[in-house]
Amino acid sequence: MRVLAAMSGGVDSAVAAARMAEAGHDVVGVHLALSRNPQSYRSGARGCCTIEDSRDARRAADVIGIPFYVWDLAERFHADVVEDFVSEYAAGRTPNPCLRCNEKVKFSAVLDRALALDFDAVATGHYARIVDTADGVRELHRAVDPAKDQSYVLGVLTQEQLKHAFFPLGDTPKTEVRAEAERRGLSVAAKPDSHDICFIADGNTPGFLSKHLGEAPGDIVDAQGNKLGEHQGTHGFTVGQRKGLKIGTPAADGKPRFVLDISPVDRTVTVGSRAELAVSSLTASKPRWCGPEPREELHVKAQLRAHGEQVAVTARIEGDQVHVRFDEPTSAVAPGQAVVLYDGTRVIGSATIDTVSRVAAQHA
After folding, report:
1. How far apart are the first and last CA of the chain?
2. Which residues of 72-82 are buried (b: 16+ CB within 10 A; e: fewer)?
3. DSSP per position, 206-250
4. For the chain, what are the domain ranges?
5. What's 215-276's CATH class?
6. Measured between alpha carbons, how far is 254 from 250 in angstroms, rounded to an integer?
7. CA 288: distance to chain centroid?
8. Contact present, 259 and 237 (Cβ < 8 Å)
9. Which terminal residue of the chain has fewer beta carbons within 10 Å of its beta carbon, N or C?
10. Residue 198 annotated as catalytic
11. Portion of the chain with pLDDT greater than 90, in percent
C-alpha cells in the first residue's frame, strides 16, 4: 500500500512513519509548511510547524529510509484555520484550531492531494484507533493512553476519510513511543510535546487577537446588567474564564466570578458565579459523522473540550442540528467549541456548539 506519512517534526509522527515503513508499506514522508512567512516561525518546540520542525522531520525520514518532501499549504492553512480562528473570536465564540486544521488541512487538503497522487492512505501520529468492522465500516475509537487521546479533535473525520487514514500509535502509551524512537535512533525521541497554538508565536492569544481585531472597549456586567468593570475587547475572553477579569469584585457568595456570556455586538462581557455557569442543554450545528448518521435518539457520552471529562447526555438529530441534553448540569460550555459524541470508546461524530441553556436562567 502506498502511504503518505504526515511528519510534523515531532516524535509521534516520526514513529508512526517508521511503523508504517516497517509494516512493508511504500511510505513517503511529507512535512506541511503552514506559515506564509518562514521568519515568523517559532524557535524551539512551542508549536508544531517551525523551521526546526521541518529539519527534524527530514532527519527522521533519512533515518527511516523513506523519501521526504515539504508541501506548502500556507494559503490553505491561513484561510481555513487562522482566519476562521480570528472570525470566531470576533463573533464571541471559542474555536478549536487543531480540530479545524484536522478537518480542513490534514484530512481534506492533504488527503485529497495524496489520493490524486495515487497514494492509498495518509498516516499521522495522532493518538486514536481505527477498528474495522465485519460490515466494512471503519470506526474511530479512543487511544489506549487516555492522557494522550486525540479522538476529540479527530471527531470531524467522515467515513470516507477514515477509510484512507492510519493512526499507528493508537494502541501504544506515549512513554513506549519515546522508548521506541530511542531504539530506532530517531533524534526527536526526547523532543518536548507541542502544546500551544502553532500560529501564535509567543503563546499570547489575547495579544494576537488584539493585533488582528484591534481594541473595542466595552463593559463587564453581572447577570442583572450592573456594570462591574471595563475591557478592551470581547475577543480577550472565553466562557468559563476566571482569571484576568480585573473587576476586583467577588460574586454574591464571596467567591470568584466567571465569564458567562460574550456579546461582541454591544461589546458586553457578562460574569457571574460558578453556579451560574451550569448548563442543562445545548444546540449544535454542522455535524460531521464518523460513520452512518444516527437516526434515533442517542443515550451516550459527550466531550466538550479537547481534554475534558465525558458527561452523560441524550442527543437528538434534526437535519443540520444536534440537540444535546445533559443528564446532570455541566459547566463552561462555550459556543464555537465542538461537542463530540461517544458510544463507549467509539466516536460517533462531532458538531459545533451554537447555543446553550443555562440552569440559572431557567429558574429565574
Report:
1. 61
2. ebbebbeebbb
3. HHHHHHHH----EEEEETT--EEEEES-GGG--TT--TT------
4. 2-183, 215-276, 278-363
5. mainly beta
6. 5
7. 14
8. yes
9. C
10. yes
11. 63
CA distance 84 to 100: 8
Alpha carbons 157 and 224: distance in angstroms, whole number? 42
Instruction: Tell me which of 3.40.50.620, 3.40.980.10, 3.30.70.1450, 2.60.40.2140 is the CATH number of domain 2-183.
Output: 3.40.50.620
Binding region for ATP: 6-13, 32, 125
Among 48, 49, 98, 101, the active-site one is 101
Secondary structure (DSSP) of 215-227 = ---EEEEETT--E
Match 486525540 to its residue by C-alpha cell. Answer: 150
Instruction: Give the sign of the dihedral formed by CA 71, CA 75, CA 81, CA 82.
Output: positive
For residue 207, give the nearest of 217, 195, 196, 215 by alpha carbon.
215
Kindly report, residue by residue over 205-215, the tens digit of the pLDDT: 888 888 888 88
pTM of the entire predicted model: 0.90
Predicted confidence (pLDDT) per residue in 77-124, tens digit: 999 999 999 999 988 898 989 889 888 888 888 999 999 999 999 999
Name the fold adopted by 278-363.
Answer: Elongation Factor Tu (Ef-tu); domain 3 (2.40.30)
Question: Strand order of the sheet with strand 26-33?
Answer: 68-72, 26-33, 2-6, 121-123, 165-166
Amino acid at position 359, single letter: V
Q: Which of 48, 49, 98, 198 is catalytic?
A: 198
CA-nearest of 21, 17, 20 to 31 is: 17
